[in-house]
Amino acid sequence: MKRIGIKGTIVSNDNKWIYDLFGIDSVCPKDVEAQLLEAAGEPVTVEVNSGGGEVIAGSEIYYLLATYGNDVTVDIVGVAGSAASYPIAAGKKVRIIPTGMVMIHNVSGSARGDYHVMDKESKILRSFNKAISNAYRLKTGLSEAELLNLMDKETWMPAQDALEKGFVDEIIGDENNVLGASALYPLKNNN
Fold it and tell me: Which tens digit of pLDDT belongs to each residue from 120-179?
């Protein structure tokens, strides 16, 4: 089985060379595509340890994994945060280590200009949030409203919470369900 890494910052194809120049861990859609072509249709395991990065690059990686056409297992070996949290949803099977985390939040951006520009930027960011929630909805079965609420709060999910909410299918090494689907110390929602 071929192993593919999504580690470090998720960057656009055009910006990857900068990260390479300075020896900074990063991945771009072309990196993932090249590894999938090398796998030549055999099942793949995608190892993820990334705090995220560029939203559009993350979407392209989601597409590449979702359309690969063979078994794609995703192993979260650290964190799958931000722009690394929705490509994991493309996996046929998503697993996480007991110390792993999944983090989802609202898309961020920047704009400069008058209030018309700011209003437009706000609408664009809200549209991106809805688009990303589609990947989460297909994986978890949670409603758009539930997911947008979790994104709005910037939600960090340890392995048990990610399993309980449907972001992952299995906790690696928990064959006897010792950790189960409920956290020993559940996160309190004070809202």
Answer: 999 999 999 999 999 999 999 999 999 999 999 999 999 999 999 999 999 999 888 888
pTM equals 0.90
Task: Please give the pLDDT value at position 182.
Answer: 54
- List, in sequence order, every residue forming a beta bridge with 96; answer none if it has no partner: 76, 171
- C-beta neighbour count of 18 within 10 angstroms: 11
Tokens matching residue 132: 């990303």
Distance separating alpha carbons of residues 39 and 53, to the nearest angstrom: 25
Contacts of 117 (CB under 8 A, 6+ apart): 111
H or E stretch at 134: helix 115-140
Cα 151 to chain centroid distance, Å, stands at 12
Which residue is listed with tokens 């688009």?
131
User: Which of 30, 62, 24 minimizes the C-alpha distance to 46?
Assistant: 62
| Backbone phi, psi, residue 156, to 5° | -100, 125
Max Cα separation, the chain?
58
Give the list of residues 6+ apart from residue 177 with CB closer than 8 angstroms, or none. none
